[in-house]
Design brief:
The protein is an alpha/beta fold and 412 residues long. It folds into 4 domains: 89 residues, no CATH class; 81 residues, no CATH class; 86 residues, no CATH class; 94 residues, no CATH class. It has 6 helices and 26 strands. Strands 3, 4, 5, 6, 7, 8, 9 and 10 form an 8-stranded mixed beta sheet that branches. Strands 11, 12, 13, 14, 15, 16, 17 and 18 form an 8-stranded mixed beta sheet that branches. Strand 21 and strand 22 form a beta hairpin. Helix 3 packs across helix 4.
Length: 412
């Protein structure tokens, strides 16, 4: 529909029969109205022209704002309704601007164009170029003014191409009142912040959401970031952490559930970053130190992974006086212990072994020389057989008493 109106101005022609403005303004009829009798047609036409001119002007503005016909049908309610619609339309579209400027220098005008900048005026502007720094705005050619955000210069990336922003003039500069609500925030751009659910944080795979302190705490409690089950074979540990580390770094801790018991020197490969030697106390592992089904903590020292939790072959057992520990018939790394007895400073362990040349270790002193030491080892020989051994925990010359001993095996 073409915008039009039935309200027309009266007596607007060049030779219209109307009195001059000076005569009309000086006429007492402007204040008191026409007296009874014959009125001058020129004066009467002047009155009609002023009234019809304003009515036609308002109706024409309404028609243009609504792009519709404003009829002279005597329906006052419809006229008032259309006037309200026209005002709302002007309020929402009359101050819209399509940016015609360049990067960081906004420019453009609205229709109708303002003749001056007035404090409190607002415009909605669709940005043509994402800003790379501080921004200025020249509205309708009325002068270049700074654009601020909360009193500060606009940051790079804060105004994004294609987005619409609301600006208000405060009498000196333009203040940015809004950001594009569909623009996600980042380290370089203001926008909305999407929070990751706790499950997302624990999974550790989302890279586009912010994390709360509670989410971090629960992720740490889950322990999942550094734990993985070994999918390799004996002596070749293979694990995949989630999220995957991009490189080895000193201090990296992994918790590994072993898939197979090692039979000698062992390596570990984390997320395909390359095989690294696994050590304990700075030395390559020996057979049986990592047992299938057990979990071990390993720390990367910049070159190798060090086993932080004691390897299985170094784990001991405390046995109290008179205690059959472990129970008769229970195997400890190849030893079936049948009894443990204490007599003064001497502890006697009776056992049968299921492997050749067992190497039992007891913390205490060597009965062979009576000296005090922390670890006494027996290799093959008279002190090592398939039925047991005795050790004197006393100092030089014997004596003293013992009530507890630690029985471990090494290298099995």
């Amino acid at each position: 529909m073409t915008a039009s109106t039935d309200f027309l101005p009266f007596a607007t022609g060049a030779g219209a029969n109307v009195v001059s403005q000076a005569l009309y303004a000086a006429d007492t009829a402007v204040t008191n109205g026409f007296s009874s009798g014959i009125a001058s047609s020129a004066k009467f036409n002047k009155v009609f022209r002023q009234a019809s001119f304003v009515a036609a002007g308002v109706a024409t503005w309404m028609a243009n704002a609504l792009n519709a016909n404003i009829p002279d049908d005597g329906n006052l309610n419809n006229f008032v309704a259309n006037l309200g619609l026209a005002v709302r339309a002007a309020a929402t579209s009359g101050n819209f601007i399509a940016d015609t400027g360049s990067v960081n220098a906004l420019a453009g005008t609205s229709s109708p164009a303002p003749t001056a900048l007035v404090a409190g005026m607002q415009v909605a502007i669709q940005i043509a170029n994402t800003n790379t720094g501080a921004v200025t705005f020249n509205y309708a050619g009325l002068g270049v003014k700074n654009v601020l955000s909360e009193g500060n210069a606009v940051k790079a990336g804060q105004m994004v191409a294609g987005q619409i922003y609301l600006l208000m003039y405060d009498g000196t500069q333009w203040e940015l009142l809004s950001v594009g609500l569909d623009v996600p925030a980042s380290t370089a751009q203001a926008g909305i912040v999407i929070l990751a659910a706790n499950g997302d944080v624990v999974a550790g795979t989302d890279t586009g959401k912010a994390v709360t302190s509670q989410g971090v705490a629960r992720a740490v409690q889950s322990g999942g970031y550094n734990y993985a089950a070994d999918s390799g074979s004996a002596n070749t540990i293979t694990i995949a952490l989630t999220p995957a580390p991009t490189a080895y770094s000193a201090g990296l801790v992994v918790e590994v559930k072993m898939n197979a018991t090692n039979t000698g020197a062992t390596t570990i490969n984390v997320n395909g970053l390359g095989a690294k030697t696994v050590q304990f106390n700075g030395a390559a592992l020996t057979a049986g130190q990592l047992v299938a089904g057990q979990i071990y903590s390993m720390v990367y020292d910049g070159t190798n992974f060090q086993v932080a939790s004691p390897p299985s072959a170094s784990v001991g057992r405390i046995m109290a006086a008179g205690e059959l520990s472990p129970a008769s018939g229970t195997a400890i790394k190849g030893f079936n212990v049948s009894s443990v007895t204490y007599s003064g400073a001497i502890v006697t362990v009776a056992y049968t072994n299921s492997i050749a040349n067992p190497v039992p270790v007891v913390n205490g002193g060597d009965s062979g020389n009576g000296s005090s030491c922390q670890s006494a080892f027996w290799g093959s020989g008279s002190s090592n057989n398939s039925t047991g051994f005795s050790i004197n925990f006393g100092v030089s010359g014997g004596g003293g008493s013992i009530s507890k001993a630690t029985f471990v095996t090494a290298g099995l």
